[in-house]
Write a structure and sequence with these properties.
By secondary structure, the chain is an all-alpha fold. The protein has 2 domains: about 90 residues, no CATH class; about 45 residues, no CATH class. It contains 7 helices and no strands. It holds the Pfam family HAAS.
Length: about 160
């Protein structure tokens, strides 16, 4: 029945001893994560939990206590997968996304800064607003100086016209 299957699975994971070793925990976590996440996300999570276990052992806990406090690695993996799905950052990447990221990094000369993307319509709107602002400034400057410049230009043109005759 269902109960027997779950019990057999638990005994397989934890062994007949009732406790799981660090290696068993990490291997189970890695196996479950590998089915749903990219290899870089799997490696990142495995490194995190290896470091966490090491840190807790250095702080005085036994390996068994640390593993027991983390709980079932399959449940932990399921939680990680769900969190990644909600954030939209841990799934497998499409080839185009990977290629574009590599291309952008090459354009930046390998600089580790962030690249921000914005929709074309938003970029067009920002450019239009900046142009309207610049035209407004030019217009206000001209409205101040135009009453002075127009009479001066008229006098200069009249003088040239009279000289050329």
């Amino acid at each position: 029945m269902w109960y027997v299957s779950v019990r057999a699975d638990i005994e397989y994971i934890y062994g007949r001893r009732g406790t799981m070793t660090r290696n068993e925990f990490i291997e189970t976590l890695q196996r479950v994560l590998a089915g749903s996440l990219s290899s870089s996300s799997v490696n990142e999570n495995i490194r995190y939990y290896q470091d966490y276990i090491d840190m807790q052992i250095r702080l005085g806990q036994s390996e068994e206590e640390v593993i027991a406090s983390l709980g079932d690695p399959r449940l932990l993996a399921k939680t990680i997968i769900e969190a990644c799905k909600l954030e939209g950052r841990c799934g497998y990447q499409e080839y185009d996304e990977v290629y574009e990221e590599g291309y952008e990094e090459k354009e930046r000369g390998g600089f580790g800064g962030k690249v921000y993307r914005m929709p074309g319509w938003l970029l067009g709107l920002i450019i239009a607003i900046v142009l309207i602002f610049i035209i407004g400034i030019i217009g206000s400057v001209l409205s101040v100086f135009l009453p002075i410049i127009i009479p001066i230009l008229c006098v200069i043109l009249l003088v040239r016209f009279l000289r050329s005759r």
